[in-house]
Amino acid sequence: MSQKSVRTFKLRILRQDGPTRRDTRRWEEFEISWKPQMNIISALMEIRKHPVTTDGKETTPVVWESVCLEEVCGSCTMIINGRVRQSCTALIDTLLQAGETITLEPMTKFPLVRDLLVDRSRMFNDLKRVKAWVLLDGTHELGPGPRQSQETQEEAYPLSRCMTCGCCLEACPQVNDSSDFIGPAAINQVRLFNLHPSGKMHAAERIEALMGPDGVAGCGKAQNCVEVCPKEIPLVDSIAVVSRQATKHMLFRWLLK
User: Fold this and answer.
1) Which residues lie below 8 Å from residue 232, measured CB to CB, with a gap of 6+?
2) At 4, is the pLDDT very low, low, confident or very high (cuts 50, 70, 90)?
């Protein structure tokens, strides 16, 4: 009896051995046995078991980052078939509808560490810059906090879903080597914490952090960010809201001189 043929697919991966090893930049292709409900992460794990390319060359396991595997941590972002997205929710069956080879590349707007792994530190530094937290020192009992209206809760919840995955920055044409634009994610967090009853106490500081040319004024209104955001956060609305807040703050500051 003839054995049943095993269905396979190919991953074509852009690799580089280190941040300064530009000379090692190369494409490698791997053939993987298909299994039901596979995603990109499980396919990369298959390569880890047997890191041999389709032309029979032994190589090192592919380096990538992932933690939660349920689109919460934001760490597994990469460019898949030319589109930035989370690899944990990128199902092989869906991707194969466009062809039998899936292409993986690292994000281009962040420093490369190795292969598909990039350094997203700039996003966390931007959160520090805009003070994306509620500033309460906890040195004494403050009692219950002020209540939020239902309307404010409904406005704030979708903004809070940001997981600093970097998709919006990767898709934004204003985030490039010639620009210091802070990007949509941090601006969205300013809107979120300025909505908070206690966070409002430091709203002016957050707005002032975005008043320079690399702040909210640097947005080019391309709206790519909302197209790629895996959490469907209304980033363009957040940029518009914060832009209005910045304009009001600037006018009041001028009038008070």
Assistant:
1) 158, 226
2) low
| Helices 235-255 & 184-195 angle (0-180, nearest 10) | 70
Mean pLDDT of 87-107: 92
- Please report the sign of the dihedral spanned by the C-alpha atoms of residue 35, residue 37, residue 40, residue 46: negative
**Token output for 225:** 């960010």
| Structure token pair of residue 249 | 């703050």
Rg of the Cα atoms in the chain: 22
State which H helix or E strand residue 13 sits in.
Answer: strand 8-15
3-state class of 255 per DSSP? helix
The DSSP line for 45-94 is HHHHHS-B-TTS-B-PPPP---SSSSSSS-TTEEEETTEEEESTT-BHHH
Judge residue 192's burial from the number of C-beta atoms within 10 Å of its C-beta, 0-12 exposed, 13-18 middle, 19 or more buried: buried
